Amino acid sequence: MKKYGLDKNWTFTSHSYDQNGVKFIASFEHRRYPFYGTQFHPEKVMYEWKRSEYFVHTANAVKVNRYFPDFFVSKCRKNCHSYANEVDENESLIYNYQTYFTGINGSYYTQCYFF
């Protein structure tokens, strides 16, 4: 990241190791703008129950991982944009799209939305 000057605008907030022991950036945030990223899936602790994967589901693990959605929603609440009317809002809801369970096919995702 330093080689390409990305460390000037981004703060790297955590790291982890892959299955081969190689260290990688796991989370980051922009120094000026509300841009954030993770290179892992914090929701898996709460929502993934696949036996072939090892996800800790203890109360403490769930509590720690709640930080991510709570933080994200707190940032979204700062947005003052709104729909012009209820009809436009209802047409934009994700509930208008059918979900497909793909876990049975070996997918890493339990839900997929196709727009």
Explain what the structure shows.
- This protein has 115 residues and is of the alpha+beta class.
- Among the domains are: 1-40, no CATH class; 42-80, no CATH class.
- The chain is 24% helix and 20% strand.
- The strands form two sheets. Strands 1-2-3 form a three-stranded antiparallel beta sheet, with no helix packed on it. A two-stranded antiparallel ribbon has the order 4-5.
- The longest helix is centred in the middle third of the chain and has 10 residues, at 67-76.
- It is extended, with a radius of gyration of 18 Å.
- The mean pLDDT is 85.
Instruction: Give the N-to-C terminal Cα separation.
Output: 34 Å
Task: Count the DSSP helices.
Answer: 4
Strand content: 15-25%
Largest sheet: 3 strands, antiparallel
H-E order? EEEHHHHEE
The 3D shape can be described as extended
Which percent bin holds the helix content?
Answer: 10-25%
Mean pLDDT: 85
Instruction: Return Rg in Å.
Output: 18 Å
- Secondary-structure-derived class: alpha+beta
> Which residues form runs of ≥5 with pLDDT under 50?
none
Largest beta sheet: strand ordering: 1-2-3
Beta strand count: 5
Topology summary:
Layout: E1 10-17, E2 23-30, E3 36-38, H1 44-47, H2 59-65, H3 67-76, H4 86-92, E4 99-100, E5 112-113
Antiparallel strand pairs: 1-2, 2-3, 4-5
Brief rundown of the structure:
This protein has 115 residues and is of the alpha+beta class. It has helices at 44-47, 59-65, 67-76, 86-92; strands at residues 10-17, 23-30, 36-38, 99-100, 112-113. The strands form 2 sheets. The protein has a 3-stranded antiparallel beta sheet, with no helix packed on it. A two-stranded antiparallel ribbon has the order 4-5.
